[in-house]
Specification:
Helix content is about 75%, strand content about 0%. By secondary structure, the protein is mainly α. Helix 1 packs across helix 2, helix 2 runs antiparallel to helix 4 and helix 2 packs across helix 5.
Length: about 70
C-alpha cells in the first residue's frame, strides 16, 4: 500500500483509476497530517465524488490490502 501511495500524492484526481483513488482515500483516513491539509481534504472528497466510492468498497479494499501486505 505505501509503495503505491507515494506516487498518488501529487497525481491529478481526474487521472487516477478507481483503485488508486481508494488507496489514496484509505491513506487519507489513516494520516493525521493529511486530514489537517485543506488540499488533501478537497482531493479526497473529489475522488469520492468522481468515482462514487462507497464505504463498503473502501472496507473491502482495505482488507484486501492488509492481506496482500501481511
Amino acid at each position: 500500500m505505501a509503495k503505491n501511495f507515494k506516487d498518488l500524492i501529487s497525481a491529478d484526481p481526474k487521472t487516477m483509476t478507481r483503485e488508486q483513488a481508494m488507496i489514496y482515500i484509505i491513506n487519507f483516513f489513516s494520516s493525521r497530517m493529511m486530514t489537517t491539509s485543506v488540499k488533501h481534504v478537497s482531493k479526497a472528497k473529489e475522488l469520492i465524488g468522481l468515482h462514487e466510492i462507497g464505504v463498503s468498497e473502501l472496507v473491502d479494499k482495505y482488507v484486501e490490502l492488509v492481506y496482500e501486505n501481511s
